């Protein structure tokens, strides 16, 4: 496990389609995953040499890296755009920024992964953790996915997803990946199917104490 902590960014050439969405927020304190996430903040330099490259047609190079506290403003901006584009929600910017900084300051809450292209952050996703007693392992939930409009249809989400999937598969305590998507978001659903994700037998219900819909 320590070996892939040392190298957690890679350069990929990518080309697929994706549009942003917000996935389910599941937050809980997970001691081993806290150590996993903490390792990124302790390693400021990102080695790319030990991770493979992936070639796709019509490529555009991106680098995938974990977030740092300095990324808070961009992540908050992407989340605000995400809510507006997918659910027509205008988020409270102050509360949103505090929520993003809470993740960046406490890795037990989650981990943001960022896609960097042309020297700028062009996409993101966040991982949170859910324990499954049936499987004796953690599901990693993919949420807060956003790809900048001028970088869509260029495989940015694929690059982010493949980074997460590779790391999840390398851990014995992770039993799978999950996300949710709006029923009418057919382009996103098609992308997820191409990546090997499948619909489940479950519908989700919630009581939201913070956002009125």
Any idea of the CATH class?
Answer: Alpha Beta
How would you classify the quaternary structure? single chain
Strand content: 15-25%
Low-confidence stretches: 1-31, 40-58
Structural class: alpha+beta
Biggest β-sheet: count, sense, barrel?
6 strands, mixed
Spatial shape:
globular
Number of strands: 6
Q: Estimate percent helicity.
A: 25-40%
CATH architecture label name = 3-Layer(aba) Sandwich
- Termini separation comes to 42 Å
Describe the protein's architecture and organization:
The chain is about 30% helix and about 25% strand. It has six helices and six strands. Helix 3 crosses helix 4. The N terminus is likely disordered.
Q: Which keywords apply here?
A:
213 residues, 6-stranded mixed beta sheet, globular, 6 helices, alpha+beta, Aminopeptidase, disordered N terminus
Summarize the topology.
Blueprint lengths: L1 H5 L3 E5 L16 H11 L18 E7 L5 H16 L5 H13 L5 E7 L2 E13 L4 E11 L8 H14 L4 E5 L7 H9 L19
Quick take:
The chain has 213 residues and is an alpha+beta fold.
């Amino acid at each position: 496990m320590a070996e892939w902590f040392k190298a957690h960014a890679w350069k990929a050439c990518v080309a697929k389609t994706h549009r942003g969405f917000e996935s389910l927020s599941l937050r809980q304190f997970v001691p081993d995953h806290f150590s996993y996430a903490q390792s990124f903040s302790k390693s400021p330099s990102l080695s790319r040499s030990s991770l493979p490259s992936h070639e796709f047609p019509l490529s555009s190079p991106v680098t995938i890296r974990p977030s740092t506290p300095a990324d808070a403003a961009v992540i908050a901006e992407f989340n605000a755009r995400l809510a507006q584009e997918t659910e027509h929600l205008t988020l409270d910017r102050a509360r949103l920024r505090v929520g993003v900084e809470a993740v960046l300051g406490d890795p037990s809450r989650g981990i943001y992964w960022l896609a960097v292209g042309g020297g700028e952050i062009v996409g993101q996703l966040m991982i949170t953790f859910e324990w499954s007693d049936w499987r004796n392992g953690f599901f990693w939930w993919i949420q807060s996915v956003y790809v900048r409009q001028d970088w869509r249809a260029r495989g940015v989400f694929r690059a982010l997803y493949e980074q997460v999937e590779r790391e999840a598969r390398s851990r014995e305590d992770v039993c799978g990946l999950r996300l949710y998507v709006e029923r009418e978001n057919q382009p996103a659903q098609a992308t997820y199917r191409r990546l090997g994700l499948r619909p489940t037998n479950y519908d989700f219900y919630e009581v939201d104490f913070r956002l009125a819909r």
